[in-house]
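Why ABC transporter ATP-binding protein? Reviewers of the renewal asked for a concrete example.
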Amino acid sequence: MTRTISLNQVSKSYTRGVRVVERLSLDIRPGEFLVLLGPSGCGKSTVLRMIAGLEDVTEGEIRLDGEYANDLPPSARDMAMVFQNFALYPNMTSRDNIGFPLRIENPGGDPRPRVDATARRLGIEDLLGRFPAQLSGGERQRVAMGRAIARHPSAFLMDEPLSNLDAKLRNHLRAEISSLTRDLGVTTVYVTHDQSEAMSLGDRVAVLRGGVLQQLAGPRAVYRLPENVFVAAFIGTPRINLLRGTVRAPLDGAMSISLGRQYLRLPEPLSSDHQLLRVQQGREVIVGLRSEAVRIASPAAARPREVAISGLVAHVEFQGHEVLVHFNTGSRPAVVPELEAPRPARPVRRRRRDGGVLDRLRERTGTLRAGPVVVLEHPTDEGPDPEEPRSEAPRLPGDLVVRTTPDMALRPGMHVPLLVDLAHLFVFDRSGQRVCPAPQYLPGLDE
Ligand SMILES: Nc1ncnc2c1ncn2[C@@H]1O[C@H](COP(=O)(O)OP(=O)(O)OP(=O)(O)O)[C@@H](O)[C@H]1O
Ligand SMILES: [Mg+2]
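Here is what the prediction returned.
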């Protein structure tokens, strides 16, 4: 009953020459809960719709239990889908909506026990007599979910099914979906742009960017060994700190990574991962420090593999159970284009693009649609804009975010000692690929 779903080099174009999914290969195992994760527009729904048979595959093949399935109609695939924009039959009560697929499947049977059991799991027993127009958006979404799960299909395909719910309900249903799909052992493909949802639900997570698979691994592995800057920045809160640095590896001295005004001296003896950084000597790299890699403490408190730097408090963000402190350390952050919030900085002056038409044409192809993973040149790096009057006291946003407890009294302008734990150091090369820890299979991690 459970299904293997395989995508082999699957591409999708809606418009000639524009690929929204680019040679995607995935082997989804029977009973697996696979999450497709990525920012808006990266092609998640398109992949799900191709698996469901609602969208043609432009190139490549989809196999269900090993059988070629590109041309199989949706009804022959025995999959239940919960859409991002779900639709209920407006003239049917919740009970009839949920029971509808059961009645189609087994016209002589009584759908009531299954409908009641499903409603209980979703906490919508009281809503069974109502019509969709009498339900809130979140309630409708739960009824739509009920309709998909009441029937026990070979696979569930869920497209952001929790997006209309408040945080409490979302957490409740998240746990419910997880236990339900595991109880039933049904293969599930779940689409979301919420990394915490992906991490808590998925057996494996497939991270997509611009229609291109970035990494496919278990939640622990995508967090601990992100293959590139995009995955590192997309997964984890607060967002990983990404600083531009240069590797210094003098033949007769200690190796270090310069971060503009300060540097991280790599402790001797060098770990094998740090030794491998020697080939980056003199090159610009991107240093990734998650919040657990940095703590506020004096150099005297340093443990082995911790090195001291310092930071000037730029901004303190109170979060209740913790505080995020934004420091200026004199380094420059690297920019991951899709993940940047719009900056309130000065307007960027448009530069004439070389080539004009040619560039615009190139932009329409799939490869350029994805663009570089990381951009080291940022408009604010260009130096002062002569057309803009200089403000008196520029408010710097800080280049390093550190988590601390709310009892620590920190104010903007304070100079604070920091310890960086180099056991948690990530280094990415100029193109954004991870070079430290070295890109190889490490035992002890899932996948
Ligand atoms: N029918 C269509 N015709 C043309 N382009 C489309 C069509 N459907 C989707 N696209 C484009 O394909 C790309 C991927 O869309 P898709 O809906 O798969 O993204 P998504 O990852 O699900 O995004 P979101 O998180 O916003 O739902 C987008 O650039 C979108 O504009
Ligand atoms: Mg979508």
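The pocket of adenosine-5'-triphosphate (ligand 1) is lined by residues 14, 20, 38, 40-46, 84, 193 (CB under 6 Å). This is the kind of structural detail the renewal will allow us to pursue systematically.
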